[in-house]
Amino acid sequence: MANESSSTITGIFRLLRPQQWLKNVFLFAPLVFSRHLFEPPFLLSAVIAFVVFSLVSSVVYVLNDIADRDADRLHPKKRYRPIASGIIPVWMGIIVAVVLAAIAAGIALRFDVRFWVTVLVYLALNLGYSFGLKQVILVDVFVVAAGFMLRVLAGVFAINVLISPWLVLCTLFVSVFLAVSKRRGEILLSAEVESSTGRPVLKHYSIEYIDQMMTVAAAGVAISYALYTVAERTVHIFGTENLIFTTVFVLFGIFRYLYVVRKRGTDDNPTHVIVSDVALIVNVFAWFISCVLIIYSKELALWIA
Length: 305
Prior knowledge:
Elements (H helix, E strand, L loop, with lengths): L1 H15 L12 H5 L6 H28 L1 H4 L9 H4 L4 H18 L5 H18 L8 H21 L5 H28 L14 H24 L1 H7 L8 H18 L5 H6 L2 H18 L1 H8 L1
Helix pairs in contact: 3-6, 3-7, 3-8, 7-8, 8-9, 9-10, 10-12, 12-14
């Protein structure tokens, strides 16, 4: 009995996919680049928004697993998911989703209507993705990309600040880049494992086409980020042109990610690719620390003095 309860608890935890919450760090971009990182009220609002989006994203994952349970049972990896494997029954998954949604709604009461609308659009898009849009070529990729864009907008509305259009555009290219790389892994995995039927939409993609899209998206990331760092508004707000030097980390990150994706081939989880590669982790931290040192140089100098 104890083992069964433990298995159920573990299954529910896995059902929430907490490792995927890492994607919600995009909510903190407006906090960092609006120069409010070290102000407790702004930081608290951003953290609460992160929690809300994490709960809502888990709701989406649960409903997606319920909708895809039959197809997941034919997949070499997804068949071990709690609902597909039978560890968590469908009715329990529905209860978990409802409870998570209620908790998220209660926590989000502190935010204004713009944040609520953003969350609802995110939820609607992802439900549409789970129940049909993921079978439409290119639309599937851009729905995933829109999710990242909405995270950034939620971060903006949570702390009520403005953000550079260049940074929003950069987020778009980053999200398309990651979404396309996920498709690449899925295609290779589907071709490698005969027992996997894969998503029907994958038949409309090819590795050559995917690689071309990744190249375009990668170029978009590099160009939009570089233009953001030298934009007149950016230089005026931060009082320095030195942010351009952080572009080297962006370029290294792109090239390293492309290398890892091609090396691993069938890894269809962008989050796993990033957190399991030491060079990428170090690069992300180096980029973040460099940005903080440059953007908050005056504040840090006052603290040191």
